[in-house]
Design a protein that fits this description.
six-stranded mixed β-sheet, 31% strand, alpha+beta, eight-stranded mixed β-sheet, 11 helices
Length: 540
Amino acid sequence: MVQHVRFRVASAICLVTALLCSSAVNAAAPAPVLHNDNPSANFGDWYTGAVPPQASSDKPVILFVQGLHSNYTTWTKTDSYYDAAYNAGYRTAFVQLKDSDGTGGNMWTNGPKLAEVIKKVAAYYGVPKINIIAHSKGGIDTQTALVHYGAAPYVNVVHQLSTPNKGSEVADMAYSSWTSWLAELLDKKDEAVYSLQTSYMATYRSQTDSRPENALTKTYMSGGEGDDGWFSSTWFAHAVLPGEDDGLVSVASAMGLPYGIPNFTKNISHSAMRNASQTWSLVKPKLALGAASASMASGSALASENLPARPGGAEENTSFILRGGSLQGQRVTETFPLESGLSNLVMDVLTASDQTKITLISPSGVRHDLQPGKPEGDEEALFAGAVHHNFSLERPEKGEWNLEMSGSGDAYFMLARPEGKIKGQIKSPRKLFRKGESASVSVGFNGVKKWDAGGGTGGSKNKATLTRAGKTNAAHAIQKINELNVDTVKGDVQVNFQVPTEPGVYNLSFDINGLNERDEAVTRSVNYNFAVTDASGKLD
């Protein structure tokens, strides 16, 4: 009996000890300490995390770099990377980039400041090199600091968490003729968003990828393939982004660094990529102290790491109908046809105000009042803060539909996705042009018998809006192209246009109207983003 009692007491002691040890391992890390290098603002400040009791010189120092429109608390909130790193014995630091003061900064603004902080962190901890974990656009800012501003010798390994290495089509959409009004109202246009357009990033890649500094650091890439739920801020991007994506960045873009090393993809959203419970275990094994080899940095030794293959480029999806504009107290009606045989119609109408009234009217006169909702969104989502009026209908009737809107001091963006036989892809891979060139964009569709090159459905013309993106919220110039030169070759639609003579980033936005195999009216929308460079290859 005594032995049984002793055994039970010993077991209880072991259990309590185990629980205490487990609690200690998962303890919340002490608050980071501010290094207030910029007393008048946050930009340029940095923080050092508490040094864990089990810290070891065998583990690298980690600097965390936040993404678009966020700050260092990206890494210190619930389910934080800071807690995970602290409990695993890593010394840490955090940076405040321009985005932490409200307006986002591009890579040329954030890069030099980040380079300074990288050197300060290495000196503070007395180490020759550090590791960096960067979320989203923070990966672009990091590469700029390393390659263009001299920080590469101080960094051994970079882990990118869903970095838009090739830009984001959602950023393109923010400057389209349909969404520009709304993006300005939501204050979602700044130099950071401007720099994430796919053609701007193509220019950046041409300026960066051939630099020898890239061989000094090993960069791991990762991407997400999920969203935050039905009609969340990240859900809307699934209709715009090509291939698999996380609601802001496509996997093809996240894995688009030519010399980067693919690490993982996971079925989670853009915001969840920075949650420790989701991705820390996939990043931690590849944190390293040793110097990066040039062969690994160039990607020649990928097979030895047994990592996933790099995905190929994705064609841009254009299987949807887009409408948008301003609302200044008058009632606005948008009209569009739907063909028969659709399995579903999914629609999201975004506004800045929840007071705007939205009604969808079917060809037979059935009225559907769309109710406003404001989902909790990631601050990095380019249309976070927008009011969503969503709608879904199985087997919608064919014919002419009307979307009625009434509001004041507002704007709207309608994204309708008819789900049926007709699928479209923008096939033109070219993103950079010299001023004044003759150019074309090719769009491929299936399930269409005839596209109308002159008169569209209802006698309308195929027209396009050529929009020049502005770096700030200021209104940008808009040029109307009244008639498109549309050629149909092997079922594809080729739109020819003249490249503007002023360097900058542009969006060509247009509808293509036609007939399906049953002679029913069909319309689909296209937004093509491209850049015009000067003689030296620069934008503006």
